[in-house]
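Tokens for chain A. Residues wanted.
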């Protein structure tokens, strides 16, 4: 029999937890083939003895192991071909007991040579005779070999299981009146809302209705249903497919061991008697050796059998629950308000909605089930975002943010349909339709102003303020005042002059009223930027401009000019130092060449004197260059020290 599902817990992350009663010892759990790994990974059964199911091996591979594969066309002939060499009992108008030899075609010319017909006959060895039995006369064929009977039964079971494509039956053997739990992937439950707003009382009646699906292979009959938010960690792991480990292959030893060949007895006249004593000392002490190796290490005590798992308590969340509403919605909006009988339970960061009314949902069916009702306060307003100026939206602003799951909401004003909205976690308003009484324009102006210019070493730091002014112009064609919420896009490093009433991740939020006719709102944002410039790159015109505008004092102006002069002198000295360094390198290279030439002309006095003179001149030049290099480096250091001060 199939087990009885009692509790179903559906998670928005796309997994389901199932709890079932198992009154009988043997029961079947049908599982979709795509879900089998999750069930094998999580299945827990009280008093479990075994779980049997069809292997995931390929059909051809299994058939090769069974050794049987019947053809659907000509099945009797196909069966007989698998029975060759086996004893059978054949019944026609007589009974034959014999061994199957094969099947043959015999021509029947009883109607003359022009009407020859081939008949298939069973060739059967009956004792010492071979009998031909026409297949079309056989009424019964009894298998007498128990092995072939088991093979045929295994083949038929395999074909029957494969015929029910997509579903795998788990045959579970456990104790009576046990329970079973498992986790498997299911369709995520979804949530939609109905928002009924009363203009007179400014009250908002919010209903949440879930959409659930039974994507399992079992009907849910009068189950306790729970819908849980949150995302428990869940993953797939292949336990269904047979796993074949690769093992190292060791070559067979094909080389035989040669026997000890007998030899003729020889003469031992010259045998050394001392060798006998030596071998005796080296002999293996059998008594000690046998005792040592036979005893071995004392065997460890066998492990204690694992204690049976205590019976798992079924997951229960006590409280008044909800009945699921399945069926057509009533016509009027007021009558469409569902009756909520739900219990909202907090499970850490997750929320569970328990449906206490027994829910019945057959496989491959879906249902709408109300799960929550919130009584809220709010007011009508218009929402405007600066990146959607042409789309001001009528909305209901809530007194408190809603911490509900994401879902679509249908909004009703005074029991009339007003529009659709989306609810997300932290929702503070429902925007549900385009407002056609407002027209909006926006002007943007930008200005820059230098605040300070500060000398920092060989750089100047310029502090500059950028001011952006946004002017929103509104035309209200409605006779009434319109409460407005403006969401203005944040900009990096920009600070608003007017503090917003609220801030989101991407927007500053402002709240104000718009009277009939024309009106405007001005928002000012400022940002401070810093620029660094090398003083040596400043032109005289820039320095004069900074001085004339008051960013630099007379002392600072003279200081900058002095720094520029020092930097230019340092640059000039470094250029001279670079030339001197190249000249020094050239002299070292020249001296190396002269010394090599001196070695080559050691026997020619005239050439030796000439090269020695060149070497002397080079040494004098090198000394002057090194002295010049030291002077330049010293002057550069002096100027650099002045720049640091």
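Reply:
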């Amino acid at each position: 029999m199939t087990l009885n599902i009692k509790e179903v817990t559906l998670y928005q992350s796309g997994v389901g937890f199932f709890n079932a009663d198992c009154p009988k010892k043997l029961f079947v759990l049908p599982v979709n083939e795509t879900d089998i790994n999750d069930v094998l990974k999580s299945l827990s059964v009280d008093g479990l003895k075994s779980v049997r199911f069809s292997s995931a091996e390929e059909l051809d591979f299994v058939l090769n192991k069974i050794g049987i594969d019947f053809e659907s066309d000509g099945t009797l002939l196909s069966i007989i071909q698998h029975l060759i060499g086996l004893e059978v009992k054949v019944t026609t108008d007589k009974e034959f007991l014999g061994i199957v030899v094969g099947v043959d075609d015999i021509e029947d010319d009883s109607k003359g040579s022009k009407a020859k017909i081939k008949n298939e006959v069973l060739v059967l060895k009956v004792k010492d005779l071979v009998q031909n039995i026409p297949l079309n006369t056989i009424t019964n064929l009894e298998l007498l070999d128990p092995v072939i009977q088991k093979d045929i039964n295994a083949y038929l079971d395999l074909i029957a299981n494969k015929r029910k494509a997509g579903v795998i039956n788990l045959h579970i053997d456990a104790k009576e009146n046990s329970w079973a739990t498992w986790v498997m992937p299911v369709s995520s439950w979804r949530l939609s809302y109905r928002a009924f707003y009363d203009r007179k009382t400014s009250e908002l009646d919010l209903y949440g209705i879930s959409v659930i699906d039974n994507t399992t292979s079992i009907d849910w009959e009068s189950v306790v249903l729970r819908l849980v938010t949150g995302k428990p960690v869940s993953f797939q792991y292949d336990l269904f497919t047979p796993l074949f480990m690769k093992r190292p292959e060791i070559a067979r030893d094909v080389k035989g061991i040669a026997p000890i060949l007998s030899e003729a007895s020889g003469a031992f006249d010259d045998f050394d008697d001392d060798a006998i004593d030596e071998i005796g000392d080296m002999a293996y002490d059998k008594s000690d050796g046998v005792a040592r190796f036979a005893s071995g290490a004392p065997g460890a005590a066998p492990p204690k059998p694992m204690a049976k798992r205590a019976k798992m308590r079924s997951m229960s969340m006590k409280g008044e629950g909800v009945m699921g509403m399945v069926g057509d919605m009533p016509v009027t909006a007021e009558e469409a308000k569902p009756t909520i009988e739900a219990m909202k339970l907090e499970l850490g960061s997750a929320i569970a909605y328990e449906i206490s009314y027994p829910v019945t949902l057959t496989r491959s069916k879906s249902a709408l089930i109300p799960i929550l009702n919130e009584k809220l306060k709010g007011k009508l307003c218009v929402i405007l975002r600066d990146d959607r100026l042409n789309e001001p939206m009528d909305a209901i602003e809530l007194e408190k943010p809603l911490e509900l799951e994401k879902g679509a909401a249908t909004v009703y004003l005074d029991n009339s349909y007003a529009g659709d909205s989306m609810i997300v976690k932290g929702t503070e308003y429902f925007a549900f339709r385009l407002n056609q009484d407002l027209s909006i324009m926006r002007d943007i102006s930008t200005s820059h102003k230098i605040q300070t210019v500060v000398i920092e070493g060989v750089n100047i730091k310029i502090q500059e303020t950028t001011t952006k002014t946004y002017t929103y112009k509104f035309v209200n064609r409605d006779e009434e005042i319109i409460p407005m919420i403006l969401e203005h896009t944040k900009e990096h490093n920009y600070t608003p002059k007017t503090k917003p009433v609220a801030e989101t991740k991407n927007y500053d939020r402002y709240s104000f009223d718009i009277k009939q006719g024309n009106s405007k709102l001005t928002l000012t944002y400022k940002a401070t930027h810093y620029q660094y410039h090398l003083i040596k790159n400043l032109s005289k015109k820039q320095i004069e401009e900074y001085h004339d505008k008051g960013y630099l004092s007379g002392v600072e102006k003279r200081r900058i000019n002095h720094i520029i002069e020092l930097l230019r002198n340092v640059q000039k000295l470094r250029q001279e130092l670079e030339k001197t360094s190249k000249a020094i390198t050239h002299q070292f290279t020249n001296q190396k060449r002269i010394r090599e030439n001196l070695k080559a002309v050691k026997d020619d006095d005239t050439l030796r004197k000439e090269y020695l003179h060149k070497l002397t001149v080079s040494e004098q030049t090198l000394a002057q260059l090194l002295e010049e290099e030291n002077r330049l480096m010293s002057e550069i250091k002096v100027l650099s020290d002045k720049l640091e001060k």
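Confidence is low (pLDDT under 50) at residues 260-268, 275-333. The chain has nine helices and 29 strands.
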